[in-house]
Amino acid sequence: MLCLAYASVPLYSIFCKATGYGGTTRKATNTTINATDQKIRIYFNADVMSGLPWNFKSETNYIDTNIGQKSLVFYYAENLSEQPVLGMAVYNVTPFKAGKYFNKVACFCFEEQILQPKQKAAMPLSFYIDPEIMRDNSTKDLSEITLSYTFFKLK
C-alpha cells in the first residue's frame, strides 16, 4: 500500500502533463506553428514557498500575444541567503481547461535551479498558445490565461 501511495504522485504528474489536466502545461514538440490574428492576454504570477530564501518575480505582469505566436518572457530570481540554494519551480495554468494548449518551448521549470549566495539570475520562458484552443468549444472564447509558478526549496 505504501508503494502504491509513493508511486501515485509521479503517475498523477505524468497523467497531468500528458492531458493538461489541472492546468498543467505541455512541453512543445512542434515549434513550427502558424500564428493567428487572434490575441490573448497571458498573466504571469510568481511565488516562493516558505523556507526558500529567494526573491522571485516576472519581468511583466502580462503580455498580449497572438495565438500560435512564440513569445519570450523572463522571470528573475535572487538568492537572499549566504548559502547556495537549490530550487525547483512548479507551475499551472488557469483556467485549467487552457493548460493543454499552453506549450512551453524552453523553460527554467524543466530543471532544478541552483543560486549561489546573493546570486541573481534571469530565467527565460519561451512558449506559445496552440491555435487548437480556438476550435475547442470550452476554450474558444478565452481572452486571458494566467501562468503561475511557485519555487520550492530542494535539499
UniProtKB/TrEMBL annotation:
Keywords: Cell inner membrane, Cell membrane, Copper, Membrane, Signal-anchor, Transmembrane, Transmembrane helix
Subcellular location: Cell inner membrane
Source organism, top-level taxon: Bacteria
Keyword Transmembrane helix annotated: yes
UniProt topological domain (Cytoplasmic) ranges: 1-2
A GO CC annotation given for this chain: plasma membrane
GO biological process: respiratory chain complex IV assembly
Residue intervals on the Periplasmic side: 9-155
SUPFAM superfamilies per UniProt: Ctag/Cox11 (SSF110111)
Membrane topology reported for the UniProt record: Single-pass type II membrane protein
The keyword Acetylation is annotated on this UniProt entry: no
Main localization category: membrane
GO function term, MF aspect, one: copper ion binding
Family, per entry: Belongs to the COX11/CtaG family.
Its job: Exerts its effect at some terminal stage of cytochrome c oxidase synthesis, probably by being involved in the insertion of the copper B into subunit I.
Name by which UniProt lists this protein: Cytochrome c oxidase assembly protein CtaG
Organism (species): Wolbachia endosymbiont of Aleurodicus floccissimus
